[in-house]
Design brief:
There is one protein chain. By secondary structure, this protein is of the alpha/beta class. The chain is 37% helix and 18% strand. It has a five-stranded parallel sheet with strand order 2-1-3-4-5, with helices on both faces. It is globular and about 35 Å long. The relative contact order is 0.21. The chain binds 1,3,4-trihydroxy-5-OXO-cyclohexanecarboxylic acid (DQA). 1,3,4-trihydroxy-5-OXO-cyclohexanecarboxylic acid (DQA) binds next to loops. The site of 1,3,4-trihydroxy-5-OXO-cyclohexanecarboxylic acid has 10 residues, from loops.
Length: 143
């Protein structure tokens, strides 16, 4: 089973960015957590991080023939990108949206995710655990 993991804009700065919201774990730490959970679950994971909206869309499209699912943190694009939402709707595999922080407990504008409206499911507020929970959900979905 193959799962594509996409981290959106500004997530490359985790570990130094808004520490009171996101904590001290770096993106490399988070990817390590995801990889060890994936190994336990027998899932092959590939990682991408990009600041570009179009690249997120292209990554989703390029994976159509090769993955069983995707875990996507669109970051701030969650709140704005109907293009990413349409790409999620356009691909045949499940896409689980994840957020490190609880987007419902922050500024009101973060509570709406237009990309989550297209996603199979959403996990938020659990830090790296959001990605791990999404992987477990993906495993259950496929068995
Ligand atoms: C985030 C939440 C978004 O609102 C924010 O723009 C991010 C990170 C999260 O993982 O908590 O960049 O997606």
């Amino acid at each position: 089973m193959k799962v594509l993991v996409i981290h959106g804009p500004n997530l490359n700065l985790l570990g130094s960015r808004e520490l009171s919201v996101y904590g001290t774990a770096t993106l490399a730490d988070i990817d390590e957590d995801i990889r060890s959970a994936a190994d336990e679950l027998g899932i092959e994971v590939t990682f991408h991080q990009t600041a570009r909206e179009g690249e997120i869309i292209e990554l989703l499209h390029a994976a159509i023939e090769s993955v069983d699912g995707a875990i996507l943190n669109p970051a701030a694009y969650s709140h704005t990108s109907r293009a990413i939402a349409d790409a999620i709707r356009a691909v045949p595999y499940p896409v689980i949206e994840v957020h490190l922080s609880n987007i419902h407990a922050r500024e009101p504008w973060r509570a709406r995710s237009v990309t989550a409206e297209a996603a199979t499911g959403i996990v938020a507020g659990l830090g790296a655990g959001s990605y791990v929970a999404a992987l477990h959900a993906m495993r259950r979905m496929m068995s």
